[in-house]
């Protein structure tokens, strides 16, 4: 049975969405194409009609995950226009976000994997990091663009590091201490 162009485009977007979540949960090498396509409700054969390689899907799924993450930061900030940075910090450094393996921050979930990937995958991550920095930069008070950029880099680095550490320890109190300490310091920096 032949699939219409519109349905093929929808199928492609569905595979990218499913892959962005499953890669965050299992890592890029932690799930095979067969299981990934099954989760998307398609056959493995359909994969090769949509993507040139798994690397192609990894780059596109990474881009999708990072765009979604940036949107979540923006939404959190918009919910508290009086203090958008505090809202973004509260969202990102929350225990709820810490528990979100499939929908949480792709930089935390896949950063180490991405460092070993192709330039295309790294380009997706670089664009996502730049978008995060841009969102943070709009929330930070500074006397110059250079100061705003430096503060944004410091805050993003601290927040990603804290979330990574919170996710890798078993002790919930230790995990919470990473999140709380960085939340306080990020507010001080801003």
UniProtKB/TrEMBL annotation:
HTH tetR-type domain residues: 9-69
GO molecular-function term, one example from the UniProt record: DNA binding
Gene3D superfamilies for the chain: Homeodomain-like, Tetracycline Repressor, domain 2
Keyword DNA-binding recorded: yes
PROSITE patterns: HTH_TETR_2
UniProt KW Transcription regulation keyword: yes
SUPFAM superfamilies (alphabetical): Homeodomain-like (SSF46689), Tetracyclin repressor-like, C-terminal domain (SSF48498)
Record keywords, A-Z: DNA-binding, Transcription, Transcription regulation
DNA bind region: 32-51
Pfam families: TetR_N (PF00440)
PANTHER family: TRANSCRIPTIONAL REGULATORY PROTEIN (PTHR47506:SF7)
Protein name from the UniProt record: TetR family transcriptional regulator
Biological classification of the source: Bacteria, Pseudomonadati, Pseudomonadota, Alphaproteobacteria, Rhodospirillales
């Amino acid at each position: 049975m032949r699939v219409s162009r519109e349905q093929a485009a929808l199928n492609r977007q569905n595979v990218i969405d499913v892959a962005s979540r499953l890669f965050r949960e299992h890592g890029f090498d932690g799930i095979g194409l067969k299981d990934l396509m099954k989760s998307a409700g398609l056959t493995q054969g359909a994969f090769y009609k949509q993507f040139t390689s798994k690397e192609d899907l990894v780059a596109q799924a990474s881009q999708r995950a990072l765009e979604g993450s940036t949107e979540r930061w923006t939404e959190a900030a918009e919910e508290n226009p009086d203090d958008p940075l505090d809202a973004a910090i509260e969202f990102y450094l929350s225990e709820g976000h810490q528990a979100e393996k499939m929908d949480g921050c792709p930089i935390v979930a896949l950063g180490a994997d991405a460092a070993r990937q192709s330039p295309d995958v790294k380009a997706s991550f670089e664009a996502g990091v730049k978008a995060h920095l841009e969102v943070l930069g709009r929330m930070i008070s500074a006397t110059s663009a250079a100061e705003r950029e430096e503060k944004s880099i410091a805050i993003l680095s601290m927040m990603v590091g804290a979330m990574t550490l919170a996710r890798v320890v078993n002790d919930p109190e230790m995990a919470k201490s990473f999140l709380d300490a960085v939340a306080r310091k990020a507010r001080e920096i801003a």
